[in-house]
Design brief:
- The protein is mainly α.
- It has 7 helices and 2 strands.
- It is flat and about 80 Å long.
Length: 174
């Protein structure tokens, strides 16, 4: 009781940025932090993709000698060169081809990619993140066990990743 008022019991509350629960565990706070980190990384990833698309358009404008003061829309530049935005498609396709090449070979690089190296060197979190990042684009589409099976059959691998990684075509609103 404070000032003749009964305090109510709550499951959890937030105070100065930290979340406290009635059982004293911090799982809720950890989940919140993870969710905020995921949102930040997704924002960073989309920002990087935008930078790549901007670079691609800059290259097309440069080749066509279109100045930014001419106020020519991106769609018009792409129409002039008879192309579509496809830098992200090309990156994903080449990455998939490279990983398929690694999976078909029995070499050190395959073991590094899969994380199957025995030794006294301790694997750090950063190395694990790099390895996972290599396979991120592909994992969105399939499980890891299917990767190796498809990689052994080169035509199946190329057919599988040629289909889904098409060029990006944007619809614009007027």
């Amino acid at each position: 009781m404070i000032d003749q008022k009964q305090l109510e019991n709550v499951e959890c509350f937030e105070y100065l940025g930290s979340i406290s629960t009635n059982d004293g565990k911090c799982t809720c706070e950890i989940k919140c932090s993870i969710a905020m980190a995921k949102a930040a990384f997704n924002k960073k990833r989309t920002q990087n993709q935008k930078y790549l698309e901007d670079f691609e358009m800059w290259c097309w404008r440069r080749m066509e000698k279109v100045s930014w003061t001419d106020h020519v829309r991106n769609e018009e530049v792409l129409f002039r060169v008879k192309e579509q935005r496809n830098i992200l498609h090309e990156i994903r396709k080449r990455k998939a081809n490279w990983i398929g090449h690694i999976f078909r070979r029995n070499c050190l690089l395959q073991h590094v990619t899969e994380g199957k190296i025995q030794g006294v060197i301790e694997v750090t979190r950063r190395q694990v993140r790099r390895r996972r990042k290599l396979l991120d684009d592909l994992k969105e589409r399939r499980e890891y066990s299917h990767f190796k099976e498809e990689a052994l059959d080169r035509t199946m691998w190329k057919a599988g990743f040629g289909r889904g990684f098409g060029p990006v075509v944007r619809q614009t609103t007027k």
